[in-house]
C-alpha cells in the first residue's frame, strides 16, 4: 500500500509552497508525517518528511532541510523500499542543488543509476494494483521523475509561486500534476482505513483550486491520450515519436493509455485552447520537445473544475446494496414532498459512477450531466434526493458528500449473512438453469459463458472465507460515516424495521429529511426487488450457517478455532443501530442482530408466494406492520 499513497503524502504542503506560504506548508507536512506515523506507514512518513525539507528550504532553514532530506532515503533504503527511496533521493537532490552542494548532488545522481539490487525481471507495483515487469530502470526513473515534475497546478517549482495571469493568448506558465484518479481508487479500495489521507487529499485539491483562482486563472481537468498521440507521430514524425518514447517510455507500459491532470490557465482561455496548451507544456517542460502541430481533438480533452457545493441535492439513499435500498426509494417517492433525480425505481450514477468516484473536485461537465439526467416528478417538490447504493462503500464518494454541507444520507443495513448469500448467488452459484436464473436476476449474464467457475454449494464460502468477508465488509464505513455526519446528517435504518414497522419507519424517515406533511392516507408500503424461497442451498445447510456466523462447530471440519467470519460485521451494525437510538429506536433490529437471525430462520422468507418472485420484481409485496395492518 505504501507505493499507492506516496504521491498523496503531503499534498496540502506542496499547495502551500506553490502559493508562497512556506510556514503553512511546514505545518501541513508535519501533520501529514504524524498521520502516516500513526498508520505505521514508513514510506508515507518519509515522503511527508521530504516535503517538510522543501518547506524548511523555502524558509531559509538549510540545516533542517538537509537533515530531513538526508534521513528519508536512509530510512527507506534500510527497509528495502527501493521505489520510495528513489523518490526521496530526487527530493534530496533538489535540496542539495538549491544549496549549491554539487558533490552531494552528484552522489545522489549516481545512486539513482541502475544498481545490482534492481534486476531486469523484478516486478514493480503500478496502477490499479497491477505489478508490471521492470523492463528497464528508465521506467522506474520516469515514475519518480513524474512525481516531481508534475507538481501542483500553480507552478513547476514550489519557489516560483502561483503563475501570473496572462492578458494575451493562452501562454501562461502553469504545471500539470499527475492524475490521482487511479491512485485514489486504490486508496478507496482500502475501505475507510485511511481517513487522514483522504482529508489531506481533499484539502489539497481545494487549495490547488483556490491558488489558481487567487492567481486570476481557471482550473481545468485535462486528459492526454498519449498512446494515440505517439501512434500518430510514428506515421507523421518518426524522429519526434522516438524522442517522446525515449523521454517517457512506452505509454502503454508506464503511463497507461490516458494521463489525466489539472491545469491552471487564464480566465480568457476556453477548453479548446487549454487542452493543446497543457499537452504542449507537458512535453516542453518535461521532455524538452516542441510540437510541430497541436494534438488532435481526440487526443486531448479539457473540462473546467467546479465545486461540490454547486450540487443541488437535499439527501441521498447511499446504500447498503442488497439490503432494501430499492424499497426505500420506491416508498419515499410516494411522499408528496419528496422527489428523486432518476425518478422511481432507478439508481443515479451521474455523480458517482465507477470512473468518477475518485474525483476530489467535480468538473462542470459532470455537474451538467447530473442536472440533465433529472427524471423526477417534473414539478416543484420540497426535497430532492439521489439513489446510489454504492456511495456508502466508497470513502471518496461520501467524503465528497460531506463537503456538500447540507446533504443528508440514509443508509440501510441488514443481516450480513443475507447479503453474503445474495452476493454468492449472483456471482458464483451453480444454478440448475442459468437462463432462468438470469431472467430472475439470480445470476449475472457473464456466468452463462463461465459455468465451470461456479460452485454447487455455499460450502465453498468456508474455504475462501477471508475473500468473501472482505467483499462483505461494511462496518468500517459505518464507523467513519458516523464520525463524519453525526445524527443531523445520517439516518441508519435496519431492514427489519422496514419489514415489521413500515408505516412508523418511513414516517420517521420522511420527517427527519425535513418533510412537513405525512404520507398520503391509506398509503401501502411495499417491499421491492427481493425473492422468496431458497435462493441457494445455504438455508438447507445449517453447518455452513454456523461456521459463517459463529464458527460453533468449526472443529467438525478440522479447522482451528477461529473468530466468526462475520462477527465483526454483526457487532458494527449493532453498534450503529444503538447509536441511532437517539433519534429512532429499532427494537426489532436489535433482536435480530443479537440472535444473529438470518432469512434462513424466517419460514415466510423461504416459501414462494404470489409476490417476491425475482430480484427485479417491481410490483412489490405489501408489508404488514407488527399490529397486522397494512
TrEMBL record:
Q: SUPFAM superfamilies of this UniProt entry?
A: P-loop containing nucleoside triphosphate hydrolases (SSF52540), TPR-like (SSF48452)
Q: Which domain of life is it from?
A: Eukaryota
**What start and end residues bound the annotated signal peptide?**
none
This chain belongs to the protein called: Sulfotransferase domain-containing protein
- State the organism of origin: Symbiodinium microadriaticum
